[in-house]
Amino acid sequence: MSTFQAPKGTYDLTPPDSAKFLAVREAISAPLRDSGYGYIETPGFEDVELFARGVGESTDIVTKEMYTLTTKGGSQLALRPEGTASVLRAALQANLHKAGNLPVKLWYSGSYYRYERPQKGRYRHFSQVGAEAIGTEDPVLDAELIILADQAYRSLGLRQFRILLNSLGDKECRPVYREALQTFLRDLDLDEETRRRIEINPLRVLDDKRPDVQKQLTDAPKLRDYLCDACKAYHEEVRALLTAAGVVYEDDEKLVRGLDYYTRTTFEFVHDGLGSQSAVGGGGRYDGLSEMIGGPALPSVGWALGVDRTVLALEAEGVELDLPVTTSVYAVPLGEEARRALFTVVTELRRAGIAADFAFGGRGLKGAMKSANRSGARYTLVAGERDLAEGAVQLKDMESGEQSAVPLAEVVAELTMRLG
Question: 412: Cβ–Cβ under 8 A, 6 or more apart, which residues?
Answer without folding.
Answer: 345, 348, 349, 352
